[in-house]
Specification:
Blueprint lengths: L1 H6 L3 E5 L2 E4 L4 H8 L9 E4 L1 E3 L2 E6 L2 E4 L2 H9 L9 E4 L10 H9 L3 E4 L3 E2 L5 E2 L5 E4 L8
Parallel strand pairs: 2-3, 3-7, 7-8
Antiparallel strand pairs: 1-2, 4-5, 5-6, 8-11, 9-10
Helix pairs in contact: 3-4
Amino acid sequence: MASQLFRAIFVQTLYANRIILGEVHPALDVLMRRQPLGLLAGFEVCSHGDEKGPLMWIEDGPVHCSVEELATIIEAQRGFVGQTVYLRMCEVGKGTDSFAQRLANRLGVPVAAPTARIFNDDLYTLIDDGCWHIFEPQPNPHR
């Protein structure tokens, strides 16, 4: 059910290498005005999130995006050319098998993500104790 609902969420692409998932509201509005990374420097994905992944609010409550859904959205963007993906969303790097690590494994590229909540200022400041971490793709031991 959540997968079908997430596909209907609006993906905004104001810059070739930045997407914003869902409707823009004050917490994400600053991202609309900020210059993106250089095209080869990285691909940015901005959304609300928690340790389970990108998070959208709909009428029935919160809905998470799966690794496969986000990978499919990213791969469909003309600005994604295999560069590092920056997840500008809270807590998606948290945990031993984090959403960010699974996305790095799926895309085969490094993924940078916070392990704590962030504030969408110019520096993506961490609100809680945590850090920004770069997750390198890991080989699948079951292949």
